[in-house]
């Protein structure tokens, strides 16, 4: 630098060059807060430093030397004449210029004295250049807006006003010169320092070469370069959080961690939450939603150790950090309240802020797009040791570009790449947490519709898939997927509408316009108004973190608050509303050095690994798969849905709340729960509804009460078709509003009173220490809830389930009672594949699930391996027996093996069909309709499958079934019982429903198996085999005909024989539904049971009424007869011991003709032959005689002794000793 020499007084210099400027530049330590705004909002940020122009445009470049000398001369003269005052500037207020292109926001000094001093300085400078002074507005530009009347303009103006005041003494005048440069082939320019006029010494310091103010590389930031994006710039390196000082009542920068951190102070667990709080975009911002947002953050399901907040504005952050509860729960925050005078505003309108209970330091990594970047936190006390090196845990915040367009998805992908590359390069061995709003569209419906409408290209759809792949390939685990598969969804929804409306990729949605009105307002109408799983928490444990739980919060409406809203006239205050358009997500992590339990525990060694099988291109269209299934009528229509909802609602109303009775009976807790295909949401229009009622009373009393109530509701569309008494208990077959239903009952007071909470309890909970029969009744609903709560993507599961079921039906292997596949088998096998594929968070399409399903089970060795869910059976204790050719384990006890009816032939058939299906799906050009085996226009007729079966074998076992009785119910019972004894296909002649005679056939196709070494069976061996088979058939005939309970030779007949193909080729499938007959057919057999039911109801009434207050007794139960008072008598009522003694020892009585009815503590009334009754107390089967309820004759069913009625026809004691009319 050289000092300018004095020159003769020059002529006037014009000031019109935009290539030079005379300005004030504040000290460099004040630039940071100003530049954090300028870099986002000021178009000239890359070219100009923070400055206050004195003269711009200035003199020409050639005149700079002369101009600087003239200015120094004038300033010297001013100083000598009047002693020029020391100038000081304080830029502490914001204002704006309005112009045609919008507005310019700036900060300035509005102090009159200081402003006047600067104006006087400017006048002397102009005087030196022989120019007259004009109007002047001192300002430092912060940014520009497109519309001076817009809310964005007002928000930026407010942001500028929140800047900490910039104050300094004016000691230098900077002369800037524009230098034109080329960067990446683009022409641009930058103002550089030509020289400096020292106001104190009145000298000019000129640079040898114009000096750059910023690094040149900064000018390249406008474009996104994926290669260089990893080298993302930091706004500031290693910034420290703010903490609240209670003594000073203000937020201050944390001094940093102490020099020695005690390892034992590290927590053993960690909870991390992410919440998009939804920014206000209208100025002035309303604060009505702020109170419910804070309530969600501080609520039981939202409170966490670390909270990542997206879309945080200056106004919200100031409001949030004013709250004493927030200050107490979260002592550390990455950004302080902008309303505090010494704290700068947030850089963008939408910002990411982290609240924490744990100390940290943080960096900002830019995505090289304005307003986009990630906060990278390093925790002081959480991490792992690699030798002597401490590797702190790192958390990266995410808020990717929103929208579903080609451009927005491309930007999203680049932003995600930036984060992952930065973490991989900077923290390759550290544990990671990546949390925030990813804005990745997940709904298959939205993506497919956008493709069809050409809103996005196929390349963009591929980018969405690639982003999911990037996450899993780098080793990040999706906490939601991991937790759902392993632990189940705590926010499980019972609503059947949810099951119907969901599409693939919508499970676990955190942005749901179908529910949340704020989300609906955000997206408006169109294909984008579907649920999306935008918000995620990803974890890379590195032997430190294990995901131990996941939940959502903010799903309940709160009252809009009356906080200090800018708009005091708001009429929304006090109204219910969601706090945000997003749900919050929270993940629980377990911190441990030993994570050996993170995998699938002890059962992993028994697990058959699932390998992904990609489908051919011809099967990749999900919409074609849905259309094919829709043509097969597997999806119920809207009317089907409404009919079943109405029927189920009516059944619940009748069972749970007898409308004709005003008597409340203490309101015992009952619940009616759909199970089976309807409960799982995979039902079709032809499906029945299986229901389970759970309550506190015994089964006998319940069914007595239920039958009475159901019959009273006959006029409302309810028919009781049949009452079935089986080994598993009683079941009612019903028809409600034309819909077939099966009703079963489970007595369990605790389950009923705590429903549905009890379904979330672990299987080992003491609550489930129940009798075996009770557990058996609960098993379907417990298994159902587990499947529903742990399926990663229900919509994909539903479509895949329907395809597999349709395939199994078409191939003739959908018949669980015959040892083939049933709904429960498909559910377990399919959910197992879905969970193993999605365990690490990978999103898997439905067509990939299907091809993988068939490929996996086609090669499954059923003899050596068991199919089970390794996430449920973590420590498998099931011991397989030699009599189980197939093991498909359910979830809850008892009867874990759901394939207990399978036989070696049925397993062989299933395996062959799976291999055939896998081969078909591997063929290029295969379509879903072609795979199912139809043209896709109509459902394949059952006759097609039957015809294929009838042509498949040379020889068949034919079981001839004939029935000619009057009671069709008895015929149905006979056929059903015979079916349970066979594993075969039922076909029959074409018969009308009016026929009382029936003749049908069960057929078993006989296939010749090869020898041990694939050798053919010789003729002699074949003769022996056929002879043995004929002997087996004769034995089978004898067993069936010898069963007196079901086989009556007066009305039915059966025979079994070997026949050739030609003898059965004319047969057709029997499509009639056995069991569709009213209870009236069986009433003659159940009169005695119904009389007992009435007594049970009366006893229930008297038991319930006894402890009630007088208020509850005012109205009697309608339709319940009043019990007669117990008659007076003098004769003793003989005991059950006396009766047993007489029946056994009286030579006139046959003890073998009598049955003992007794009360089992768990199973209700049971019966046992008198000759089998054990009287010795030391006997294992001993039953106390006080539990005996009655004795009856086997031959005519007459009860000869009844404890409740005190009737005794053996000795004539009790009421039997009184006149007949008194024994009613």
Explain this structure to me?
- The chain is an alpha+beta fold and 1224 residues long.
- The chain folds into five domains: 20-222, Alpha-Beta Complex (Cyclic Phosphodiesterase, Chain: A), CATH 3.90.1140; 242-247 and 269-440 and 471-496 and 534-598, Deoxyribonuclease I, Chain A; 617-932, Beta Polymerase, domain 2; 942-1075, Alpha-Beta Plaits, CATH 3.30.70; 1127-1224, no CATH class.
- β11 (242-245) and β12 (250-253) form a beta hairpin.
- The relative contact order is 0.06.
- The C terminus is likely disordered.
β-strand amount: 15-25%
Based on the coordinates given, report the CATH architecture of the largest domain.
2-Layer Sandwich
Strand order of the largest sheet: 12-11-15-16-14-13-26-23
Q: Identify the CATH homologous superfamily of the largest domain.
A: Beta Polymerase, domain 2
Which residues sit in consecutive blocks of at least 5 with pLDDT less than 50?
216-236, 563-567, 594-600, 659-664, 935-940, 983-995, 1075-1088, 1102-1130, 1220-1224
Form type? elongated
- The CATH topology of the largest domain is given as Beta Polymerase, domain 2
Task: Give the helices and strands, then pairings.
Layout: E1 20-24, H1 31-41, E2 52-55, H2 64-82, E3 88-91, E4 93-99, E5 102-108, H3 112-128, E6 140-145, H4 151-161, E7 166-169, E8 172-183, E9 186-198, E10 203-211, E11 242-245, E12 250-253, E13 269-276, H5 290-298, E14 306-312, H6 314-320, H7 324-329, E15 332-333, E16 351-356, E17 360-366, E18 373-386, E19 389-399, H8 406-426, E20 432-437, H9 444-452, H10 458-473, E21 477-478, H11 479-487, H12 496-501, H13 517-523, E22 535-540, E23 545-553, E24 558-559, E25 576-577, E26 584-591, H14 622-631, H15 638-656, E27 671-675, H16 676-680, E28 689-695, H17 699-712, E29 718-726, E30 729-736, E31 739-747, H18 749-753, H19 772-790, H20 794-810, H21 823-838, H22 846-858, H23 904-921, H24 928-932, H25 942-950, E32 955-963, H26 968-979, E33 985-988, E34 998-1006, H27 1019-1041, E35 1052-1060, E36 1068-1069, H28 1083-1105, H29 1136-1145, E37 1154-1160, E38 1164-1169, E39 1188-1193, E40 1199-1202, E41 1207-1208
Parallel strand pairs: 13-14, 19-20, 28-31
Antiparallel strand pairs: 1-2, 1-8, 3-7, 4-5, 5-6, 8-9, 9-10, 11-12, 11-15, 13-26, 14-16, 15-16, 17-18, 18-19, 20-22, 21-22, 23-26, 24-25, 27-28, 29-30, 30-31, 32-34, 32-35, 33-34, 33-36, 37-38, 37-39, 39-40, 40-41
Helix pairs in contact: 2-3, 8-10, 17-28, 20-21, 20-22, 22-23
